[in-house]
Specification:
The structure holds two protein chains of two kinds. Chain A is mainly α. Chain A has 13 helices and two strands, in the order ααααββααααααααα. Classes of the chains: A mainly alpha, B alpha+beta. The interface between A and B is large, with 48 and 46 residues.
């Protein structure tokens, strides 16, 4: 019950955060120098069309009027339309967001699958050969720019080999999954390095903790010590880190999307900001804010799963 | 109305009739050269189209593909040098020069098999002229209305006689489209694809990923197009596009940076194809700035500029040094001007005569545009030799777009132009109509003599006289010293060596009727 109340309270707290975020992005877009109508029309502008478009886009109205129209439409579920793409923003974001979410999810799964065992291995074999090799791998991961990793993977595993698609994201879920593996690994590469180091350090710390020695002295098996004592406790700070990395993956996917030709939201958002597509930027940011809030909530819930001493909504930890 | 005119118009009409007969009588493509053409050709391009409605669309990324889907009465030739008949078999012009009667091929059908009717022609023209959402009115604003007494006659009533009428009729907004299809799908869905008479039709468009065109089964030329499907695949990253081309994952890569062209030259399987374009870069000098009002100062800047260095440094030799704001591919280009060649001594002398020293100038450049930035940096270096300090004022793309319309914001600006039609009238309107773009960012009001030359060039029907008028105009720009020509850049494409029939006209339009690659 306490947990339910906690989640409900957190969800309610999200509402004002969400509203403030919307107001901030609405104002920020309009504070940017430049002219949305000019940006839409491009290089060769017919003055009559320019004036008509300004009117049509509502740019001649006061800021307050623009906001009330936007807010009123939003309450009715209308995110507006993209003047560049000539389609509703909800539809535009919906089609792109799926790709970016799947890419981030794939990258997160790859990060977990690769980083946790390697980080744990490095931690338990501290200063031995496996530790040195894993740390070296992590160092490469941190140093290698993602566009370079992407291009290397593209050259070695996709172009000319037919093993993986060189771009696009396919037509069905099987193809989507296959198409996401290389970009997912590219996006995960830097995160893997960070998480490995984090897990390793946590494992080293936890292994030296008194309660682990106590467990050993009780004659618990090394499996129980490893999973129930060391790994479980080492993962609590890692969960926070992982959540932050996933949020970063969503917004930082633009380079990967460009290299692998994925029709994700990263490139769309950059184009929309440059082109002063107010409705599209507001829509994208709204989705990002929602995802960030949800991921943070899930992370908090995960804490209580990893460590039963942490009770959501309770006064004690 | 039936009177034939013996000048450019008459010549074109004659040529038109001949080529019309050829097209109409034979309707057969030249013998196909490849034994087994590849079914599909994949073209990697950096950006996706965003609107396939020719009337409402903006930007080259949409415009360039319309020649594949729709056809107009006339079209520019593949080399951009002249205007040819397309769906018309001939035409006549009345005495006043304002009523143009076009005879259209009989039996034309759209890609969906429905016949092209008088109603389709009237609707296409009327929509292009009257649509409030169109940014292309400039090319059709001289058309008053259109009447089609039958399915094979299109009578165009112009507001006044103009030399650019034929060229304007090549604009993509006037390519005949199916009215019935528009009414069936509605204006919103029409942005996703149209029905025309071109060699291809839209098969599938997955926005942000690919646009697939399929061969029009009802295309009027038997045996064409050679390739059954053309896919425009979006590969935004330049390096990825090159890698995919080298890995044979795509057949053609477009919009490549100059440096990659040089890199691809060494690949025996790739043909680097810098196709001639009408894209000219120049520096516009803001003549409303006190320090730049003196003609001698502007001339000194012109003389101190060495345009060849831009070609060598920025374009690795793939561009050509410009001597005019007109591209050499234009029929009206005047070749009698010298390109800026870096005469430092003469430039210093002129500055001295003008009593100017320690001149500091800011140049407005588009943020994120590497060509703009490189032009600014080379100018900085070149003009330092005459004691002029150049400050790069790089502004984010949208701010740049707005600020360049404000003459208080800059001393110099990197400008450029590429034609949409094969006639300079559209371009000249940008320069001569001060209210449109402040003398194309120079702040210079063209004097009466120049205005008169331009006005005459707009209506002169004798092509030779017209060429002379535009030569005088280009000489005038040079004498005024308001523009410093930099370079003319090509369309930077690279193809697999087995690809044949690739055509990108100087205006940028793709023509793929004979595009093929051996399987």
């Amino acid at each position: 019950m306490e947990t339910f109340k906690y989640i409900l309270r957190r969800v309610l707290q999200m509402i004002p955060v969400f509203i403030v975020s919307l107001i901030v992005i609405f104002l920020m877009m309009r504070l940017l120098p430049g002219d949305a109508a000019l940006a839409t029309l491009g290089e060769k502008v017919d003055p009559k069309v320019y004036e008509a478009l300004k009117e049509n886009m509502g740019l001649n109205a006061s800021l307050w009027d623009q906001f009330t129209i936007y807010a009123s439409n939003l309450l009715q579920g209308d995110l507006g339309s993209s003047y560049k793409y000539k389609m509703p923003v909800a539809e535009l974001i919906g089609s792109r967001m799926v790709v970016t979410l799947c890419l981030a999810l794939t990258a997160a799964i790859i990060t977990i699958i690769v980083a946790l065992p390697l980080g744990y291995l490095a931690g338990v074999k501290k200063d031995k050969l496996p530790d040195v090799l894993v740390r070296l791998f992590a160092l490469v991961g941190l140093a290698a720019p993602s566009f370079w990793v992407g291009l290397v993977l593209l050259i070695t595993l996709a172009v000319g080999t037919g093993l993986f698609p060189t771009s696009g994201w396919g037509k069905d879920w099987g193809e989507h999954l296959w198409a996401l593996l290389l970009p997912g690994f590219t996006l995960a590469f830097a995160s893997i390095a960070v998480v490995i180091r984090n897990v390793r350090n946590n494992v080293v710390d936890v292994r030296n903790a008194d309660y682990v020695d106590f467990g050993r002295s009780k004659g618990l098996s090394s499996w129980v010590i490893s999973t129930g004592y060391v790994l479980r406790n080492a993962l609590i700070p890692t969960a926070t880190l992982l959540a932050l990395r996933i949020i970063g993956m969503l917004s930082g996917s633009v380079i990967i999307e460009n290299i692998f030709g994925l029709p994700g939201i990263g490139a769309l958002l950059v184009e929309a900001v440059t082109g002063r597509e107010y409705a599209t930027v507001q829509g994208c940011v709204m989705v990002f804010v929602a995802i960030t809030l949800i991921v943070n909530l899930l992370t908090d819930i995960l804490y209580s799963v990893l460590d039963h001493r942490i009770q959501l909504g309770g006064d004690r930890a | 109305m039936d009177k034939f005119m013996l000048n450019r118009r008459g010549f074109l009409a004659g040529a038109a009739a001949l080529s019309g007969l050829a097209a109409f009588g034979g309707l057969a493509a030249p013998q196909f050269a490849l034994a087994a053409p590849q079914e599909k050709i994949v073209i990697g391009r950096p950006v996706d189209s965003d609107d396939l409605d020719p009337v409402t669309c903006l930007g080259n990324i949409n415009i360039f593909i319309f020649n594949l889907i729709i056809d107009g009465l006339v079209k520019t030739s593949n080399d951009g040098s002249e205007i040819e008949l397309n769906l018309a078999t001939g035409y006549e012009v009345d005495e006043s020069g304002t009523v143009w009667t076009f005879h259209v091929q009989e039996g034309l059908v759209f890609s969906d098999g429905s016949p092209v009717t008088a109603e389709d022609w009237e609707w296409t023209f009327t929509r292009a002229i009257e649509s409030e959402d169109s940014n292309w009115h400039m090319c059709v604003e001289n058309i008053d209305h259109v009447e089609c007494p039958d399915d094979t006659t299109v009578i165009i009533y112009c507001k006044e006689e103009a030399a650019s009428t034929l060229a304007n009729l090549c604009i993509f907004t006037l390519g005949v489209q199916s009215k019935a299809y528009f009414e069936k799908v509605g204006a919103d869905e029409y942005h996703n694809g149209i029905i025309g008479t071109g060699p291809y039709m839209v098969k599938e468009w997955k926005r942000g990923e690919y646009l697939t065109l399929a061969a029009n089964p009802n295309y009027r030329v038997e045996g064409q197009p050679y390739t059954k499907e053309v896919e425009f695949k979006i590969v935004s990253d330049d390096s990825a596009r090159v890698i995919q081309l080298q890995g044979n994952d795509i057949d053609i890569a477009t919009d490549l940076p100059f440096a990659t062209l040089m890199q691809l030259e060494n690949d025996p399987n790739i043909t680097v194809q810098p196709d001639p374009s009408t894209m000219v870069y120049w520096i516009s000098i803001n003549t409303t700035r006190e320090k730049l009002m003196d003609r001698k100062v502007r001339e000194a800047l012109y003389l101190a500029t060495n345009s060849q260095e831009f070609v060598d440094t920025i374009a690795f030799g793939y561009a050509t040094a410009a001597s005019s704001v007109f591209a050499p591919t234009s029929e009206f280009y005047y070749g009698g001007l010298d390109q800026p060649s870096g005469d430092i001594e003469a430039a210093k002398k002129l500055l001295e005569e003008a009593g100017v020293s320690n001149l500091e100038l800011s140049i407005l450049i588009r943020g994120g545009n590497e060509t703009h930035k490189a032009i600014g940096m080379i100018l900085m270096k070149q003009w330092a030799e005459i004691g002029v300090t150049v400050k790069l004022d790089e502004r984010e793309a949208t701010s740049y777009q707005k600020d360049r319309k404000d003459l208080t914001q800059y001393d110099l600006i990197v400008s450029g132009w590429s034609d949409d039609i094969q006639d300079p009238s559209e371009f000249m309107q940008f320069i001569f109509d001060f209210n449109v773009n402040s003398g194309y960012y120079s702040g210079y009001h063209q004097p009466e003599e120049m205005q008169a030359l331009n006005a005459q060039a707009q209506i002169e029907l004798d092509n030779e006289v017209r060429k002379d008028l535009y030569a005088q105009i280009q000489q005038g720009f040079r004498d005024e010293g308001i523009y410093i020509p930099i370079m003319v850049t090509p369309w930077c494409n690279a193809l697999q060596s087995g690809v044949t029939g690739w055509v990108q006209t100087p205006l940028g339009n793709y023509r793929f009727e004979e595009l093929a690659r051996e399987a």
